[in-house]
Amino acid sequence: MRLRHLAFSLLVFSGLARADVDLTDDQGKPVHLAQPARRIVSLAPHVTELLYAAGAGERVVGAVQYSDYPEAAKKVARVGSYTAVDMEKVVALKPDLVVAWKSGNRDAHLDKLRGLGIPVFINEPRKIDDVARSLSQFGRLAGTEAVAEPAAKAFRERYAALAARYSARPKVRTFYEIWNRPLMTINGEHLIADVMRLCGGENVFAKLPVLAPAIDVEAVLAAQPEAIVASGMGEARPEWLDDWRKWTKLPAVARGNLFFIPPDQIQRHTPRILDGAERLCGQLEEARERR
């Protein structure tokens, strides 16, 4: 009896392991896997982090430069950068799935991989809740739903709690500075703009047509933001954030609302986006108190 039960269990398990996976990616393209992926190459740092958060970290055999979170991701073989993928290295890793980033990877590279018969899944999160959706998708692709679904649920619950606390607060006109030379910001379609909305911030450049446009100082002065938020390149506050202090009549300067958030907490489409959101929400609360 025990042997029959064991045989039945093994049959069920093997059937699940071989179960087809059919998903539509964020570009609207169907992706079919004969079974959950076992060898995954990630072509963006945020994708690598999401795969680990979805319980698929042990299946990531290749990743691009700056895939540095969690710590284990640093040990994964490198296949170039997201803008300059080393195709030979990718193919040599014999992946059964490549997860790519539409905004960062080149179409020519992705088309070549598809031409070689390698399934490519495009990830393109634009809203905060897209992080939870990505976790669920990656869990299905790798067969790690037991980890991915609770992670997605926990993310949505934390997101809802922040929204309940901050989204209806009085609006704060906010300028987000990605970089200083060239001076760059984000429009209303960017993930960071969604974080602003969560915190009751109003993106002063929301109506610009480009996702991450270059602007000039005069445009910022004309927009009269109450808060300026910068990210920079690492954990240290960028020195160029203080360049705005020369414009003493700018509300953000006059009220001392020059804020910094580490880029990994607000520019990556991962669960850590809520760490950045919590920080931004607190900063905009300070701005309201200084009115």
Any idea what the CATH architecture of the largest domain is? 3-Layer(aba) Sandwich
Major sheet summary line: 4 strands, parallel
| Ends apart, CA distance between termini | 76 Å
CATH fold node name of the largest domain: Rossmann fold
Shape: elongated
Round the mean pLDDT to the nearest integer and report it: 93
Mind telling me the CATH superfamily name of the largest domain?
Answer: Nitrogenase molybdenum iron protein domain
Q: Provide the succession of SSEs.
A: HEEEHEHEHEHHEEEHEHEHEHH
Q: Helicity range of the residues?
A: 25-40%
Low-pLDDT runs: 1-17
Integer-rounded radius of gyration: 22 Å
Structural class: alpha/beta
Strand content: 15-25%
Total of DSSP H or I helical runs spanning 4+ residues: 11
The number of E-state strands comes to: 12
The number of domains is 2
> In what order do the strands lie side by side in the largest sheet?
4-3-5-6
CATH class of the largest domain: Alpha Beta
What labels would you give this structure?
ABC_Transporter_SBP, 4-stranded parallel β-sheet, ABC_transptr_periplasmic_BD, 12 strands, 291 residues, signal, 2 domains, alpha/beta, disordered N terminus, Cobalamin-binding protein, 11 helices, Vit_B12_bind_prot, Rossmann fold
